[in-house]
Specification:
The chain is mainly alpha-helical. It folds into three domains: 76 residues, Dna Ligase, domain 1; 81 residues, no CATH class; 108 residues, no CATH class. Helices cover 49% and strands 9% of the residues. The protein contains 14 helices and six strands. A hairpin with a 7-residue loop joins strand 5 and strand 6. Helix 2 packs across helix 3, helix 10 crosses helix 11 and helix 10 crosses helix 13. The radius of gyration is 29 Å and the shape is elongated.
Length: 334
């Protein structure tokens, strides 16, 4: 009798195992799909997206087995599923993505909108949430900055984060990278040049927007440092564009814009950086070797480089060459 009972139990167990195997190894994905899973999603949200994006078969069964196999808590991640994936493979894949990482890229020249989008595209930080934080002096005061110089917190690079990382985790990592960059040597160099760290970043940000030629940074920052030291307005076109809120060619009428960032009307540095500066532009300020240039103008060969001048007369001749070349180019285009 006991042997018969054992055989029955084994048969039932085998039947259950076979049923489970059939359930879990049956293809449930009918279409290749890729989408992002957000941190506020429930298992229902995920099932609905799998159904609409990947044509998941029987989302109710998916939810039952997800909970049975320990995936009741949905984690933020980027999902890529292929047609023909079975239920077991799908749930195993989702569980493995609990600790998925992505690289947040911070580029020189980024403005607030660009940085917010870069961060939000990879981790659990909303665009509006980020932009609001960067304009909140209470939040920024913990990092020794305010809304006028939030750019100084960020060092251009690629940073790895868990996708589930929130704003506080992101900012703490940025502060660590910032502190590592601004070591005693760099702080001492800033002091030797007669600038604070924030002033260095402001000058470097203008140079960053002036040229994409990093080998010109030393000459460009030198022009601005020379102007600062003799009390001459910086006269930097990129600050005008920042004040206007748009990029492009600067015209004489633009120079009347009423803004603290108008470095044609106001002597000295603007209230803060106009972008996230290139690290090489920062180094150019810190390692500035005195020269006598006070002016620069784009070269007429459209190489992206500049002609530098010591006198205003020389600068006017360089500017005339540039305007003639530009007018000729515009005529040819027409």
């Amino acid at each position: 009798m006991l042997k018969k009972f054992i055989r029955i139990l084994l048969a039932v167990g085998f039947g259950i195992s076979a049923w489970m195997y059939a359930q879990l190894k049956t293809s449930v994905i009918e279409k290749n799909a890729a989408f992002r899973v957000r941190g506020d999603w429930t298992l229902d949200s995920l099932a609905n997206h799998l159904e609409s994006k990947a044509q998941l078969e029987d989302k109710a069964n998916f939810k039952i087995w997800a909970e049975r196999l320990g995936y009741s808590q949905v984690n933020p991640c980027f999902v890529e599923v292929k047609k023909g994936k079975d239920l077991w493979g799908l749930i195993k894949y989702l569980k493995a993505n609990r600790y998925q990482t992505r690289n947040v890229v911070i580029n020189p020249e980024y403005n607030l909108e660009q940085l917010a989008k870069s961060v939000s595209s990879k981790i659990e930080v909303g665009v509006d949430e980020f932009k609001s934080a960067m304009q909140n002096d209470l939040v920024l005061s913990a990092f020794g900055i305010d809304r006028y110089n939030w750019q100084s917190l960020f060092i251009p690079n690629s940073y790895e984060f868990y996708v589930k990382s929130d704003l506080s985790i992101f900012l703490e990592k940025m502060k660590a990278a910032h502190d590592k960059f601004w070591n005693e040597e760099r702080l001492s160099k800033a002091q030797a040049q007669g600038f604070s760290k924030l002033e260095v970043v402001s000058i470097a940000s203008i140079a960053t927007k002036e040229s994409h030629k990093t080998d010109e940074f030393e000459s460009i920052v030198g022009v601005y440092i020379n102007r600062l030291r003799i009390g001459m307005p910086l006269g930097a076109d990129p600050t005008i564009n920042f004040a206007k809120g748009k990029s492009g060619r600067v015209f004489k009428s633009d120079l009347r814009v009423d803004s603290r960032y108008n470095t044609y009307k106001n002597v000295g540095l603007p209230p803060g950086p106009i972008c996230i500066p290139h690290p090489q532009a920062i180094e150019a300020v810190l390692n500035y070797v005195k020269h006598n240039y006070l002016y620069f103008c784009a070269k007429d060969d459209f190489s992206g480089y500049h002609n530098f001048a010591k006198s205003y007369g020389e600068h006017l001749r360089n500017a005339s060459k540039w305007r003639k070349a530009l007018n000729k180019l515009n005529r040819e285009k027409r």
